[in-house]
Automatic annotation (TrEMBL), chain A:
Residues 30-237 form the Cytochrome b561 bacterial/Ni-hydrogenase domain. It is a multi-pass membrane protein. Keywords: Cell membrane, Electron transport, Heme, Iron, Membrane, Metal-binding, Transmembrane, Transmembrane helix, Transport. It is found in: Cell membrane. InterPro entries: Cyt_b561_bac/Ni-Hgenase (IPR011577), Di-haem_cyt_TM (IPR016174), Hydrogenase_cytochrome (IPR051542), Ni-dep_Hydgase_cyt-B (IPR000516). The chain crosses the membrane at residues 37-56, 76-97, 145-169, 203-220. Gene3D superfamilies: Transmembrane di-heme cytochromes, Chain C. Signal peptide: none annotated. The gene is cybH. Residues 1-20 are annotated as: Disordered. Belongs to the HupC/HyaC/HydC family. GO terms for biological process: respiratory electron transport chain. PROSITE patterns: NI_HGENASE_CYTB_2. This is Ni/Fe-hydrogenase, b-type cytochrome subunit.
Automatic annotation (TrEMBL), chain B:
Gene3D superfamilies: Cytochrome-c3 hydrogenase, C-terminal domain, NADH:ubiquinone oxidoreductase-like, 20kDa subunit. The lineage of its organism: Bacteria, Pseudomonadati, Pseudomonadota, Alphaproteobacteria, Hyphomicrobiales. Residues 60-205 form the NADH:ubiquinone oxidoreductase-like 20kDa subunit domain. It comes from Rhodomicrobium udaipurense. Heterodimer of a large and a small subunit. Belongs to the [NiFe]/[NiFeSe] hydrogenase small subunit family. This is Uptake hydrogenase small subunit. SUPFAM superfamilies: HydA/Nqo6-like. The keyword Metal-binding applies.
Automatic annotation (TrEMBL), chain C:
Belongs to the [NiFe]/[NiFeSe] hydrogenase large subunit family. Ni(2+) binds at C76, C79, C577. It is a peripheral membrane protein. Heterodimer of a large and a small subunit. Gene3D superfamilies: Cytochrome-c3 Hydrogenase, chain B. Keywords: Iron, Magnesium, Metal-binding, Nickel, Oxidoreductase. Its EC number is 1.12.99.6. Its cofactor is Fe cation; Ni(2+). One of its GO terms (molecular function) is hydrogenase (acceptor) activity. InterPro entries: Ni-dep_hyd_lsu, Ni-dep_hyd_lsu_Ni_BS, NiFe-Hase_large, NiFe/NiFeSe_hydrgnase_LSU. Pfam families: NiFeSe_Hases (PF00374). This is Uptake hydrogenase large subunit. Its main location: membrane.
Length: 253, 356, 598
C-alpha cells in the first residue's frame, strides 16, 4: 500500500536513463514527507529531552522568594514529559510508516543483515572511515554503517528510553494507571529499585547524545565528501548523486 | 481456655451490641453481605488469639525496637490482646531448651494456623553457621518454623531484601526470606526499620479483616508502599519551584527547602514516611533536616553515597555516576570525531591536489 | 582438664554436669552459654559463645566515610545511634573537623535519650522477668499492692487499689486464656523467685506502664534525627537546623519542638524517679542476699568516657561520664586510657572463629585483621552444624578477645560507676551512697549482678537529668545568637588529605565503644569497631584469661540446673548486644593493608 500525500513534490523533469552519456543515477525519491517531518520533530524532541533531563538530574541554582512564585522544576519536568510524549507518538507513527511507506522507510527497522552484499559494503565503508579506502560507494538510502548505527544506537536506544521513561512516569501517575500497569509494575523489579532505573535512564540518555554526535558528523562528512546528497535529501526527500554509477542498494530500492 | 477476639473486646469494655455492629460492618467491608454477620460473629467469639512465632536471624533488632515504639496501637495491647506472641527471643521469658520447645509446639499443634514473623535473614555461607540458634544454623529453624505457617511476615529490609549484611560483598551470603521459603504467602514490610505504626497496622489489618493485605508485585502492602515519599512530601512545593538546600545548615535549609541536591532519596523511595510519619507522627527524616536514605528500597546500601543525587553505576566494574560516565564517553567520541574530521580534511585536500 | 586457675584469678572445673542454654533470650542478637555445675549445683566453669557474625566492617571498605554512620548504626538497633555517633566522631577526628557547639549539645541530648530509654527498657523488658514472677502476681492483694506502691514511691499517681485490680484482672484473663505469649514456658515455679505476690504485681504493672511510656522517650530523637530507631546523623554536625523565628521556622528546631523535647524530658525524669528507681530498690531489698555475679567488676574495669561538655574537647576533664581504667581491684589508682596507643587496646583470637598469621599476638584495631575461620575443637559433642556441647579448649565464639594492656576488662554502667566512684565524681558518689544506705549494704555489694543492675538504674536517672541540663544549654546558646548546627568546610571529599586515620569513641549503654577508621583517597580503607559486648562477652585469650560474662557466672549457686534463671539473671545484668560483636575480614583472606600507628 502506498499512501500518497499532497506534500510530495512533483519529480524533477524526467532524467534520461543511464546511458545518456554521463552514467549518473537519476535522482530518487527516498524520504517521504511523513519521514521528513518526523525526523525534525524527533530531533527537536530529543534535544528538549536531553536538556530538560539533564536539569532534572542536576537542577539549576535555587530561586529566591516564595515557592508559589515559581514553578521552575515543574516546567522543566513538564517539558521533559511533553517532549517525551511527542517522541513516543512520533516513534509510533514512524513505526507505522515503516510498513506503509516506501521501501526506504523500513530500512533502519530491518537492516538487511542476512545478505552478504550488506556486510561487504559495511566492510568497505568501515575501511573508508578509517582511511584505508579512498572512495565510498553510492547508496540510495543510508550507507550500511549508518544503517547499523541507526538501528542499534538510535532505535534500540530510543526504545529503551521510552520503556524506562514510561516506567518512571508511571511512578508519578501511580498504581492503576496504564503507565504504571504496563510499564512501572514490571520494569522496576527488573532494575531492583527505582533509583537504579533512574540511573540507567540517565546513562542511556548519554548514549543517545553520542548517537546524535555521530549521526550529525556522518551526515556533514558525507555531504562534503560522499557521492550523494545528504542535507538536501532530508529536506526535499530526493537523493541526487554526484558521480556516475549504480547505487549499491539500488535493487532493494 | 483460649481467649477469643470477642472476649478481648468484651474485656476492653465493648458491648455485645457494638460487637455485633462491628461484625456487620466487617462483613460488609469483606463483601460478605449482612446475612453473614452472625457467622463472622460466631467465628470471632470462638477464635483464640492467633499464635505468632517471631524469629530473629542476622539483624540488629531495630524492627523489634520499632514495633515496641508503636503509638497506636501500643505494643502492650498487641501482645496482650490481639495475638499470642509465643516465641520472640528478644522479649520471651524462657530460654534454651524451653524456648526451642515452643517453636516445636506451635508448629505441630497449630498447623496452618499461626503466623511466622521474621526479623533479619539467614546467612548461607559456612553451612549457615554465621548465625547459630540452638547449636544449629538459623536457616534450619526458619525453614522448620515456616513449614506449617499460615503466612510469613518479612519484617524490615533484612528479611525483605537482605539489607546491610547483604550489601556488597555480602561476606556471609545473607539472603532475604523469600529466597529460602517458597511455598508460603510472604508479606514484605521493608524499611530499616519499618515505621512502627505501619508494623502494627499490618498486624491489625490481618486480624481485623482476616486476610492478608493487598500486595504489590514485590510483595509489599499497597496501602503503605505504593507511593514515593517525594509524592507526598511537604517540601514538594519547593522542589517544583526549584528551591533547594545547597549546603548543610545554609539559609535554604533553615527555610525548609527541598533536600534533593543533598542526595535525598525521597523521589525513588516507596514508603509512607511523609504521610504516616514516625513515632506517633512526630516527624520524619526530611522534616528533621536530613534527606531520605531510601531504607525501604531493595539494595539501597549499594547505590553510592547517600549524599549524591546521581548514583554510581557499579554493574560494569566502574564506580562512577551516569553523568561522569556519559560525559566522558561523549568527550571521547567528540574528540574522535574532531580528529577524524581533521584527518578527512587533510586527506581530501591532498587528494584534490593529486588530481590537479 | 579438671581444675585450672586462670591468670586473672579464677578457678575453672569442667568435670561436673554440663548445662547448655541456647538461645540465650532477652538480649540483642544471638548467644549461647554453657556451664558445668558441681554436685551442689554451683557453677564451676562457664563458656559464653557469640553465635552470629555479619561482617559489616568488610562491607564498609571502599565506601564514602560520610556514609559510614548509617552502616555502623545498623550494627545494633537497640543501642541505635551510638555506633553512628562513634562513627561521625571517628571521621571528624580523621579529617580534623570541629563541630558547632549546638551540634555537640544536640548529639549529647540524643545519646542521653538513648541511655535513658535503653536502660529503662532493659530493666523492665529484658531483665525484670529474671527477678519478677508474673504468675505469682495473680495471688496479690490489690489493696496491699497499693500500699506497697505508696510506700516505695509516694509521688507516683497510679497507685490506687482499683488500678492494680484492673491490671490484675487483665493479667488473670491473659493467663487463663492459656496463651501465655512471651511468658510461656517461663520458670514460674522456680524457688529462685523471691518477691512476694504484691511486689510481683507492682513490678508487672510497671512492666506494662514502662512498655507504654517508653514510646514517648525516643521521640526526642525523632525530633532531632527524623525517626527512631536509626535516626539520621551528619559528619560535621547534625542535620537538623535551628530557626526559632525566621521564615520557615515551623519546619526546623523551633519553640514548639523545644517545648516538646522539654515535656518529654520532664516526663522521663518523673518516670525514672517515681517508677524505675523505686522498683529497683524494692526488688533489690528482696534479693540483697543474692550477691553472685561480681566477676571482673571488682578487678578490672574500663571506660572511655562520654558526653563532652564542651564541643570538640574529648579530654577526661570535658567528659561528663568518667574515663579511665582500674586494674587488679585497686580503686586508688585510675589509669588514663589512650585509644591510639598500639600497646593498650589489642584483640586476640586463639579462641575466636578467626585466623591471625600469629595467634600468639594481639593486634591494635588500626592494624586489625580478621579472617573468619569456623573450626570446632576435638572435644566437641555433636557435629559442625549441630553443636550439642562446645569445646572451649579450641575456638568457640564469633567474638574476639579484646584486652587492655593484656587485661580482660568489664565495661558498662557498673564499670563507669566504679571508675566515677574511684575518681570521686560528685554526682556518682552521691547516688551510690544513697542507694547503699537505703539498702543497708556495704560498698562491696556493688560488685555483683545486682550492683550492675543498680548502676544501670542510677545511670538512667543521671542521664535523664543531664538531658535537661543540655536542653537549658542549647536554649542559652541560641539565645546568645548561635544557631549553627553544621560545619561544612570539609564536606567535599576533594578537600581531604590523601591519607588520614582517626578514632571515635562513646560510652554506649552497654559500655566502652570505639571505632577506628582509615581513609584513603576519599574512601574507607579500613574500619574496625571494638564494642562493649566484645569486651564483656570475650572468650578466653592465649594466657587463659576469661572474659567478664564467664567470670561473672562462676561460683553461682543455681536452684535447678535445668532452669537457667540464675544464668540469665547474671548475663542479662550486662545487657548483652551480640549483633555488635561483628568483625572485619578481608574478602579473600588477604591480610588487610598495614596501617602505621601514629
Amino acid at each position: 500500500m502506498v499512501i500518497a500525500t499532497d506534500f510530495d513534490p512533483p519529480p524533477p523533469t524526467a532524467p534520461k536513463p543511464n546511458g545518456n552519456g554521463n552514467g549518473f543515477q537519476p535522482a530518487i525519491y527516498v524520504y517521504e514527507f511523513p519521514v521528513r517531518i518526523w525526523h525534525f520533530v524527533n530531533a527537536f524532541a530529543i534535544a528538549a529531552l536531553l536538556v530538560s533531563g539533564y536539569f532534572i538530574g542536576s537542577p539549576p541554582p535555587t530561586l529566591s522568594g516564595e515557592a508559589s512564585d515559581h514553578f521552575l522544576m515543574g516546567y522543566i519536568r513538564f517539558t521533559h514529559f511533553a517532549a517525551g510524549y511527542i517522541l513516543i507518538i512520533g516513534m509510533a507513527a514512524r513505526t507505522y510508516w515503516a510498513f506503509v511507506g516506501n521501501k526506504h522507510a523500513l530500512e533502519i527497522f530491518a537492516p538487511p543483515i542476512l545478505t552478504a552484499k550488506f556486510w561487504d559494503n559495511t566492510w568497505h565503508e568501515f575501511k573508508r572511515y578509517v582511511f584505508l579506502e579512498k572512495e565510498g560507494r553510492k547508496y540510495v538510502c543510508h550507507n550500511p554503517i549508518a544503517v547499523l548505527t541507526m538501528h542499534f544506537m538510535f532505535l534500540w536506544g530510543i526504545t529503551f528510553m521510552i520503556f524506562t521513561g514510561l516506567a518512571l512516569y508511571g511512578e508519578g501517575t501511580g498504581m492503576g494507571t496504564w503507565q504504571h500497569t504496563l510499564f512501572t509494575s514490571w520494569i522496576i523489579p527488573i532494575f531492583g529499585n527505582s533509583q537504579n532505573l533512574h540511573t540507567f535512564h540517565h546513562l542511556a540518555a548519554w548514549s543517545i547524545l553520542i548517537f546524535v554526535m555521530i549521526h550529525v558528523y556522518g551526515a556533514v562528512r558525507d555531504e562534503l565528501l560522499g557521492h550523494q546528497s545528504i542535507f538536501s535529501t532530508i529536506v526535499s526527500g530526493y537523493r541526487t548523486f554526484k558521480s556516475p554509477g549504480k547505487p549499491e542498494d539500488m535493487d532493494r530500492a | 481456655m483460649d481467649e477469643t477476639f470477642y472476649d478481648v473486646l468484651r474485656r476492653q469494655g465493648v458491648s455485645r451490641r457494638s460487637f455485633m455492629k462491628f461484625c456487620s460492618l466487617t462483613a460488609a467491608a469483606l463483601g460478605l453481605g449482612p446475612q453473614l454477620a452472625p457467622t463472622l460473629a460466631h467465628a470471632l467469639e470462638t477464635k483464640p488469639r492467633i499464635p505468632v512465632l517471631w524469629l530473629h536471624g542476622l539483624e540488629c533488632t531495630c524492627c523489634s525496637e520499632a514495633f515496641i515504639r508503636s503509638a497506636h496501637p501500643l505494643a502492650s495491647d498487641v501482645i496482650l490482646s490481639m495475638l499470642s506472641l509465643d516465641y520472640d527471643d528478644t522479649i520471651m521469658a524462657s530460654a534454651g531448651h524451653q524456648a526451642e520447645a515452643i517453636v516445636e509446639e506451635i508448629v505441630t499443634k497449630h498447623k496452618g494456623n499461626y503466623i511466622l514473623a521474621v526479623e533479619g535473614n539467614p546467612p548461607l555461607n559456612e553451612d549457615g553457621m554465621y548465625c547459630i540458634i540452638g547449636g544449629k544454623p538459623f536457616v534450619e529453624q526458619l525453614k522448620y518454623a515456616a513449614s506449617n505457617a499460615k503466612a510469613v511476615i518479612s519484617w524490615g529490609s533484612c528479611a525483605s531484601w537482605g539489607c546491610v549484611q547483604a550489601a556488597k560483598p555480602n561476606p556471609t551470603q545473607a539472603v532475604p526470606v523469600h529466597k529460602v521459603i517458597h511455598d508460603k504467602p510472604i508479606i514484605r514490610v521493608p524499611g530499616c526499620p519499618p515505621i512502627p505504626e505501619v508494623m502494627t497496622a499490618v498486624i491489625t489489618y490481618i486480624l481485623t479483616f482476616e486476610r492478608i493485605p493487598e500486595l504489590d508485585r514485590q510483595g509489599r502492602p499497597k496501602m503503605f508502599y505504593s507511593q514515593r515519599i517525594h509524592d507526598k512530601c511537604y517540601r514538594r512545593p519547593h522542589f517544583d519551584a526549584g528551591q533547594f538546600v545547597e549546603a548543610w545548615d545554609d539559609e535554604n535549609a533553615r527555610k525548609g527547602y527541598c533536600l534533593y541536591k543533598m542526595g535525598c532519596k525521597g523521589p525513588t523511595t516507596y514508603n509512607s514516611c511523609s504521610t504516616t510519619r514516625w513515632n506517633g507522627g512526630v516527624s520524619f527524616p526530611i522534616q528533621a533536616g536530613h534527606g531520605c536514605i531510601g531504607c525501604s528500597e531493595d539494595g539501597f546500601w549499594d547505590n553510592g553515597s547517600f549524599y549524591d543525587r546521581l548514583t554510581n553505576i557499579k554493574q560494569f566494574g566502574v564506580e562512577e555516576n551516569a553523568d561522569v560516565i556519559g560525559a566522558t564517553a561523549a568527550g571521547v567520541v567528540g574528540a574522535a570525531i574532531a580528529a577524524h574530521a581533521a584527518v578527512s580534511a587533510i586527506k581530501n585536500a591532498r587528494s584534490k591536489g593529486d588530481n590537479e | 582438664m579438671a581444675t585450672i586457675s586462670t591468670p586473672n584469678g579464677f578457678t575453672l572445673d569442667n568435670s561436673g554436669k554440663r548445662v547448655v542454654v541456647d538461645p540465650v533470650t532477652r538480649i540483642e542478637g544471638h548467644m549461647r552459654c554453657e556451664v558445668n555445675v558441681d554436685d551442689d549445683n554451683v557453677i564451676r566453669n562457664a563458656v559464653s559463645t557469640g553465635t552470629m557474625w555479619r561482617g559489616l566492617e568488610v562491607i564498609l571498605k571502599g565506601r564514602d566515610p560520610r556514609d559510614a554512620w548509617a552502616f555502623t548504626q545498623r550494627i545494633c538497633g537497640v543501642c541505635t545511634g551510638t555506633h553512628a555517633l562513634t562513627s561521625v566522631r571517628a571521621v571528624e577526628d580523621a579529617l580534623k573537623i570541629d563541630i558547632p557547639e549546638n551540634a555537640n549539645i544536640i548529639r549529647n541530648i540524643m545519646q542521653l535519650t538513648l541511655q535513658t530509654h535503653d536502660h529503662l527498657v532493659h530493666f523492665y523488658h529484658l531483665h525484670a522477668l529474671d527477678w519478677v514472677n508474673p504468675v505469682s502476681a495473680l495471688k496479690a492483694d490489690p489493696v496491699a499492692t497499693s500500699e506497697l506502691q505508696k510506700k516505695v514511691s509516694p509521688h507516683h499517681p497510679k497507685s490506687s487499689p482499683g488500678y492494680f485490680r484492673d491490671v490484675q484482672n487483665r493479667l488473670k484473663k491473659f493467663v487463663e486464656s492459656g496463651q501465655l505469649g512471651p511468658f510461656k514456658n517461663g520458670y514460674w515455679s522456680n524457688p529462685a523467685y523471691l518477691l512476694p505476690p504484691e511486689a510481683n504485681l507492682m513490678a508487672v504493672t510497671h512492666y506494662l506502664e514502662a512498655l507504654d511510656f517508653q514510646t514517648h522517650i525516643m521521640r526526642i530523637r525523632t525530633i532531632f534525627g527524623g525517626k527512631d530507631p536509626h535516626p539520621n546523623w551528619l559528619v560535621g554536625g547534625v542535620p537538623s537546623v535551628i530557626n526559632i523565628e525566621g521564615p520557615g521556622a515551623s519546619t526546623s528546631i523551633n519553640m514548639e519542638r523545644l517545648n516538646m523535647v522539654r515535656s518529654i524530658i520532664n516526663q522521663s525524669i518523673e518516670f525514672v524517679e517515681n517508677v524505675y528507681i523505686p522498683d529497683l530498690l524494692a526488688v533489690a531489698q528482696f534479693y540483697k542476699g543474692w550477691l553472685y555475679g561480681g566477676g571482673l567488676s571488682s578487678k578490672n574495669v574500663l571506660s572511655y568516657g562520654d558526653i563532652p561538655d564542651r564541643a570538640n574537647d574529648y579530654s577526661a576533664e570535658s567528659l561528663l561520664q568518667p574515663r579511665g581504667a582500674i586494674i587488679n581491684g585497686n580503686l586508688k589508682e585510675v589509669f588514663p586510657v589512650d585509644l591510639r596507643d598500639p600497646n593498650e587496646i589489642q584483640e586476640f583470637v586463639p579462641h575466636s572463629w578467626y585466623a591471625y598469621a600469629d595467634e600468639k599476638k594481639g593486634l591494635h584495631p588500626w592494624d586489625g585483621v580478621t579472617e573468619p575461620n569456623f573450626k570446632l575443637g576435638p572435644n566437641l559433642v555433636g557435629t559442625r552444624t549441630n553443636i550439642k556441647e562446645i569445646d572451649e579448649s579450641a575456638k568457640y565464639s564469633w567474638i574476639k578477645a579484646p584486652r587492655w594492656k593484656g587485661h580482660a576488662m568489664e565495661v558498662g554502667p557498673l564499670a563507669r560507676y566504679v571508675i566515677g566512684y574511684a575518681k570521686g565524681d560528685k554526682e556518682i558518689t552521691e547516688q551510690l551512697t544513697l542507694v547503699l544506705k537505703t539498702l543497708d549494704v556495704p560498698v562491696s555489694a556493688l560488685f555483683s549482678t545486682l550492683g550492675r543492675t543498680a548502676a544501670r538504674g542510677l545511670e538512667c536517672q543521671w542521664a535523664a537529668r543531664k538531658m535537661s541540663y543540655f536542653l537549658d544549654k542549647l536554649i542559652a546558646n541560641v539565645k546568645a545568637g548561635d544557631t549553627a548546627t553544621a560545619n561544612t568546610a570539609s564536606w567535599d571529599p576533594s578537600t581531604w588529605p590523601a591519607e588520614v586515620k582517626g578514632v571515635g569513641f562513646t560510652e554506649a549503654p552497654r559500655g566502652a565503644l570505639g571505632h577506628w577508621i582509615k581513609i584513603k583517597n576519599g574512601k574507607i580503607e579500613n574500619y574496625q569497631c571494638v564494642v562493649p559486648t566484645t569486651w564483656n562477652g570475650s572468650p578466653r585469650d592465649n594466657e587463659g584469661n576469661i572474659g567478664a560474662f564467664e567470670a561473672a557466672l562462676l561460683n553461682t549457686k543455681v536452684e535447678r540446673a535445668e532452669e537457667p534463671v540464675e544464668i540469665l539473671r547474671t548475663l542479662h545484668s550486662f545487657d548483652p548486644c551480640l549483633a555488635c560483636s561483628t568483625h572485619v575480614m578481608s574478602e579473600d583472606g588477604r591480610e588487610l593493608a598495614e596501617v602505621t600507628v601514629r
